[in-house]
Amino acid sequence: MTEASERAFPELGDRLERVRSGIADACRDAGRHPDEVELIVVTKFHPPELVAALAGLGVRDVGENRHQEAQAKAEELARLDLRWHFVGQLQTKKARQAARYAHAIHSIDRERLVDALADSERAIDVFLQVNLTDDPARGGVAPADLERLAEHTLTASALRLRGVMAVAPLEEPAAAAFERLAGYAERVRAIAPDANAVSAGMTHDYREAIAAGATHLRIGSAITGKRPEPR
Asked: Is the pTM of this model over 0.85?
């Protein structure tokens, strides 16, 4: 991290180390090794300069949930050795564009989206997003349709099915929601044994996610600080 970056984002390094320490503590409590858990820093609404500062601190996995913003940052920071994770709802009509910069897409929730990504010129890691609520308006595939979506994803040679993803509902304890997600992960592994990843856990609930077996954490404000107003 350069002196200029330290002046622009003076607490960034300290917040990153606190989260890394918290992850290590949570892994120890769960009887897991920190190397089993991948940290994705979500930089929604933050400027490219902050992402560059994170890269200077050793961060390589960056998450975005708006396609236009993600695409612009990926282009501007192409010189950096970053892995871009798309973690938001992706419109089918934007899928081919996202495939040009996204190394991983965590929000596969319908067959049409799989089909739109299937002819990608490079391999993309994908996670099946599961809806952990009874509200069909929430993002994610209904659990009853999970196996069918997994089987369809396996037909797309450009896509590497890594596992499942979910956002814990605010109206119930995160631990209970992530316990259900662990069960859905087992159902996907019964179809695709190598799909053993679980993308779960954010700033407020990553400890519960680690206890339930999460392998990928999507953490934003605990590291980046308060989000700027969207532009």
From this structure: yes
